[in-house]
Structure prediction request, 187 residues.
Amino acid sequence: MIPPLSTYIMVRDEEISRLIKYAEGMGLKVRFVTKKGVNHEAYWTIDGTELVVYNKKANSKTDNILSLIHEIGHHVWFIHEKNRKKDERLEKALDRQDEFEENTNENPAPKKLREKILNMERASTDYWYTIYKDTNLKFPLWKLYAQMEFDVWQYEVYYDTGHFPRFMERRAKWKDIARKHKNKQYE
Prediction:
């Protein structure tokens, strides 16, 4: 017998709550913000003080959970690999990325700075599974691994071209990645 949808909603709400507590335990302030016209799903402040998730109508609770894991992964990386010290070159790279996204006349960040961002994104995904286990999440593991691969792919495209992939490219890539991971056995 399949449990009712309300059971899944409660489980996801509890998982979100556990992830928030997990982040707060590391000193992060977590906020959910409704804002139209935002390209990002969430962001983590480079100084390690705050994590913001954007509420979007199209996002499911699992999408929000994956966004939280992504951003918490950055913070865990910041703690373990940077000893909570700001990386000036990474900050410069992220500032250039933000400027470019806001002003299309601006040139993209130089490849060396884009590489810094890609390396941080890759390193942060190393902590996703640990976060998943530490917070006792129950959604299918294939979704976690598919999201990891998809996120890294987007930043690889950004590194190579100076631009993030367009909507149709992202959609096609997500379908391929999801199909691949759904067929794998995890744990």
Summary: The chain has a mean pLDDT of 87. The chain has seven helices and three strands.
